[in-house]
Amino acid sequence: MHQTRTFDLNNEIFLADDTLITSKTDLQGRITYGNQDFVAFSGFSEKEFLHKPHNLIRHPLMPRCAFKLLWDFLALKLEFFAFVCNLNKQGKTYWVFANITPSYNEKGEVISYYSVRRRPSKKGVETCLGIYQKLLEIEKENGMEAGVQFVLDFLEQNKISWDELMINLQNEGKEGGYR
What we know:
Blueprint: E1 21-25, E2 31-34, H1 36-42, H2 46-49, H3 64-75, E3 80-87, E4 93-104, E5 110-118, H4 122-142, H5 144-157, H6 162-172
Antiparallel strand pairs: 1-2, 1-5, 3-4, 4-5
Helix pairs in contact: 3-5, 4-5, 4-6
């Protein structure tokens, strides 16, 4: 999808303090709902994004292993937090702090996924940009699984969970946000 879209990190748009980009997907990651903030930031109309894979807005700076970790968490019925760099239809970059959670039916079965994205902290974006660049290098040389292992080793060495790391980074730079 992104081979035909170009991007420029200097062509960046920023979320406001009150922005809440929300979307829902089916179990395969196809978009079933996006709110007006999703429309505004993605640049896609509802007709253009409904039933399309959520990776429609994936930025080439995002390593594949980040999404592997996301799907691994969701498979365990756990919520997932992350700083995500997105690319809109017009080729503009925008960073978000994302929370993705499973949605359940009355039998306790996962039926979809719900995501809320808000303005990320500057500290989180700066830290994750460096991590993601390293992961892209690892993936290029040794594959996606090597990237996942790098993250798992990093978390173990620092005695911190993925969610703790992400939430701490968001909270450290909460005042003033990412601009």
